Structure prediction request, 227 residues.
Amino acid sequence: MTFGMWDGVFFNLGPIPVDHLIFTEWVLIALIGIIAISATRNMQMVPRGLQNAFEAIIIFTYDFFTQLMDEEHVAKKWAPLLTSFFLFILCSNYSGLIPGAAHIEGFQPPTSNWNVTMTLAIITFFSIHIAGFSEHGAHYLSHFVSPSWAMLPLNLVEEVAHPLSLTVRLFGNIFGEEMVIAFLMFMAPFLVPSAIMGLSLLLGAIQAIVFTILSSSYIAAAAGAGH
Prediction:
């Protein structure tokens, strides 16, 4: 079975239907949450083990966003969201590499569905404008008519294009990758897997990084001194 073919309701939570995609998202979010809680439950001055690994991720992402956004206070404010994006997308991308995952009922890699990538892009869209208003107040609106009122339609189209490009880029790459893997596995199940799995590891990380970088650059542009 190809990824994305598990349609319909997986189970009902009272009157609320839960499909396969939502269930997989809950599992991944719970997994990330459990790891985060375990890493910070008994913190030591000299970090070891899971705490050390988790702190390394936080420090790396904070330093990365600080360099990318220029303004340290903006990076500090938005780093938790952007780091959450990165971890969720990375885990979602890699979840498709679990052996036999396509045949597990209730399992569907979230980023292979455009509804998930669109939701992440919409969160980014609102974050961009929240960052703009929080840094510049009502003056932020002036960038929509910069350098003149005649640019208003084009500037509005550009704002809509941001979440659209994020949605299509992430969904297209992950869904296309899953389709190629499924086809090649069918054609040569004993020759292809190792090479494809290695490539998928690389592409999964790249897509998570690209989405996060683009989101952070859009937020940085809205919060920047140029507005």
The mean pLDDT is 78.
